[in-house]
Amino acid sequence: MRIAPGYLPEPQTDYEAKAVHFCRAWLSGQSFFTLHTSGSTGAPKPIILSRSQMRASAHLTGQTFGLRAGDRALACLNIDYIAGVMMLVRGLELGLDLTVVEPASNPFQGFDASLDALDFAAFVPLQMHTLLDQAERSLPVLNRMKAILVGGAAVDQALASRVQAIEAPVFSTYGMTETVSHIAVRRINGPGQTDVFRALNGVEIGVDNRGCLNINAAATDFQTVQTNDVVELIDPRHFRLLGRADSIINSGGVKIQPERVEEVIAGVLAREHLQTRFFIYGVPGGRLGQQVVLFVEDENGWPESRIDAVKNTVRQKIGPYAVPRKVLALPVFQETPTGKIDKKRIAATCFPEKM
């Protein structure tokens, strides 16, 4: 479905009807909108956002990436959540020519992206992987874009390596429903790639006594949003994301940041040129209080040689308490509605007596 400036089409599907309904509400001047958090770090909850917050976020994105009226953009993220609905707002506020497609692992499926000369798009990591699996068809489209955003989940080493094939600038984003989408970005390809996030213009950041990021911006209605994301604050505009305070594993009195363990494991898999999803989770039980468990998405499981390599590398780089005590292979990971791995639900399914 194509939504051009000044034109709303007649919807052909329920999903298109939902998108058109939102656009009509926005164009009518509706002042407040209720959205829901993704549920990736807790139970989904409703959040009321004002029109002024959403407008501020949309215009900041436009300024950051040089978007202009008439630019072509792809809206392929779920419009029930902030990342998807904000693409609609950007289209309406900035005068973009939007192609709206229902979320799918292949966001180019169902329309001829090669004919659309897209200027801007946002994807989740799974979609980005799928597009790069079909590089012959996708790269000519991706390379022409002004900017490509990847959000919704962390960008691992495998994806960071693959996006080097894209000529257009690709950015990992940081944000949440409470901040009305992204408030910081980092480039992940080309000569400007970095592991440091840069806060967008007008966004003020700081940390609390836990080292967790807090945010104040027009998009937050100038109210401070306190997160549970542990960061290294480099200066008033830049930070390095370390992990979540509420995901820290306490094993034998030693605090372990799962994201750090995952980073080490990703390095082992990169040496094998292996692209597979996995995550580390703390499961209660045993003398250690919590045990480190590695969940992998692989219907065949991992060979002992790979598991031994992972354990030895984690032991050498982090320490013995961070070594996974168990490795569980699942054919398919359960996901949240926004496409993130539903870690809590997976752990509860595998360890119902402990979670």
UniProtKB/TrEMBL annotation:
Source superkingdom: Bacteria
Residue stretches making up the AMP-dependent synthetase/ligase domain: 32-190
SUPFAM superfamilies documented for this protein: Acetyl-CoA synthetase-like (SSF56801)
InterPro entries reported in the protein's UniProt record: AMP-bd_C, AMP-bd_C_sf, AMP-dep_synth/lig_dom, ANL_N_sf
Membrane-spanning residues: none
Pfam families xrefs: AMP-binding (PF00501), AMP-binding_C (PF13193)
Sequence ranges assigned to domain AMP-binding enzyme C-terminal in this UniProt record: 279-340
Stated family: Belongs to the ATP-dependent AMP-binding enzyme family.
Record-given protein name: AMP-binding protein
